[in-house]
Amino acid sequence: MEININSDGTVTxxxxxxxxxxxxxxxxxxxxxxxxxxxxxxxxxxxxxxxGELLLYNAxxxxxxxxxxxxxxxxxxTC
Length: 79
What we know:
- By secondary structure, the chain is mainly β.
- It is built from 1 helix and 6 strands; from the N terminus they run ββββββα.
- It has a 3-stranded antiparallel beta sheet, with no helix packed on it. Strands 4-5-6 form a 3-stranded antiparallel beta sheet, with no helix packed on it.
- The mean pLDDT is 82.
């Protein structure tokens, strides 16, 4: 994973070789929505920008379909 620090201080994590397991669209980068300095780590959730599938980063920082039960674990106060 390559980390780029943009001129506005945000961070773009280039996730080369990652595809959405649902639609096979190539995922080229990841950007934190609430904290733009965060880079993805195991257990983080994401959305495919192409099909909207709920995804989860695994230990290899590849994306897999997230179980819908993960939505119950999200704290709306901190997300």
